[in-house]
Amino acid sequence: MPTDEPAPKPIILSELERRLAAFPAMDDPMKPRRLARLRISMLEELARLPMTDNPLADAKIEAIVQCALLAYQSVGSIARQDPKPILLWNEELEPAQFLTRTLFLADHVLIRDQLFEEISRAPTNRSVGELARRELEDKDLLGSGRVIAVPQGVAMALGQNIASVLAGKDLKNSRLMKFAHSQLVVEGPTARSVLIVNAKDDFEHSQKLWLYGRIDAENLDESGTFKTKMLQPYDSNHDYQPWVQQVMRDAATFYVQRSAERLTVADIMGAEYVAASPFEARLLQMRSSKVGTGTAAASLWADVPSLANLQSRDLARILNNDGAVEDLRGKVRAAVATAPLLGDQTLAITQLVADIEHASSVLESNIRTSRAYSAILPALAGGAGLVVGATGGVLGLTGAALATAGGLLPYIDAERSARRDASYLFITARRQRSNKAVRGRRV
């Protein structure tokens, strides 16, 4: 029977997740780019599956399992590199949204492998094909190797005991539990004695339901054995409050343990977990001042409208500007270096972004001016060289060509320098959105 003392719930894992976790590490794990090509090839094949409810073929299941194992071992290899690349983990945001909101700080973004999760639930051609087509919407980002789908259940199979111990400590934190309890929104009991519970500002996609099991007195025998019935009509004369309080304790336990499990998965994979929902961010802050803070977390909460609503293809093009991306990372790290608290760090990044956006407008104007002059001034200089050198034969013509090249070099160099500045990313983002709008109007 349930008690007033919250305790961790058993972590349910599939046999497949446990077996993959026991696999020996590869001597030569697959590189992210090669892994990306393999996954895209698999996704394209799965996307062609017929829209039927026939069970998925064993060969397709085996391909999904092998790809998941390769990804898990590849990520483990990345995390052991020196210097260690920046790995960010989040279960809730789409890859493009997560990349932009964390200001491209991650070398690799880790996302849930939903195909691997699906094959543990009697997969069909329809369910797997739909997931594959949805994932292919981020084909450009996946192909870059920056976004890697990983089987989180495999990591949890390795860290199950760690997660349980961590959750047990958190559940004994009265301040944390009180906060989680205060954030719950309870609906019911409904006409069928059901409670619907959610947390404020959480991103959980499925609502949590609790069904009231009332003792069926007609089946109670002398030994004390009885049966319960679910979905019974609401009884206005019955006191539901003890059950409601028990459900709220269970719900608070669920949310606190969920955070502990997510932190454990991130730790096992060598990544930093970044909370995306306001509820979980507050929960992590309440848990410990050292958890849920840092450059990536502060970047997630900063106001960066210029990089919002970009699609996978646009982001892949922007991320090709390696110099500008590295410049942005350096500026963001410098902005939070002297800010001790998450709120201060977020404000510092917001101010930095505003400055960069302003600088990008100036830079874009300068680039346009430079391009205009690069088309006029060198031509004038070259023309003058041809006139002056007309009496000098070949030497005169050579001097004219050098004069033209000399006139171009400052503008070419200015353009290259601009591409290494963080402001250039914001210029590119504006151009991509502008091009998209033009294409939309043409359609």
3D structure, described in words:
There is one protein chain. The chain is of the alpha/beta class. It has helices spanning about 15-20, 30-45, 60-80, 95-100, 115-120, 125-135, 140-145, 150-170, 175-180, 240-270, 280-285, 295-300, 310-320, 320-335, 340-390, 395-420, 425-440; strands at about 85-90, 110, 145-150, 185, 195-200, 210, 215, 225-230, 270-275. The protein has a four-stranded parallel β-sheet with strand order 3-2-1-9, with helices on both faces. The longest helix has about 45 residues, at about 340-390. Residues about 370-415 have low confidence and may be disordered.
Give the structure's gist in a few sentences.
This protein has helices at residues 15-21, 32-47, 58-79, 95-101, 114-118, 125-135, 139-143, 152-171, 174-182, 241-268, 278-287, 295-301, 312-318, 322-336, 342-388, 393-418, 423-442; strands spanning 87-89, 108-112, 147-150, 184-187, 194-199, 208-211, 214-216, 227-229, 272-273. The chain is α/β, with parallel strands linked by helices. Helix 12 crosses helix 15 (342-388).
Mean pLDDT: 83
Major sheet: 4 strands, parallel
β-strand percent reads 5-15%
The helix/strand order is HHHEHEHHHEHHEEEEEHEHHHHHHH
Structural class based on helices, strands and sheet pairing: alpha/beta
What Rg do the Cα atoms give? 29 Å
| N- to C-terminal distance | 62 Å
Helix content: 55-70%
- Spatial order of the strands in the main sheet? 3-2-1-9
Count every helix, treating DSSP H or I runs of 4 or more residues as helices: 17
Low-confidence stretches: 372-413
Strand tally: 9
Overall 3D form = globular
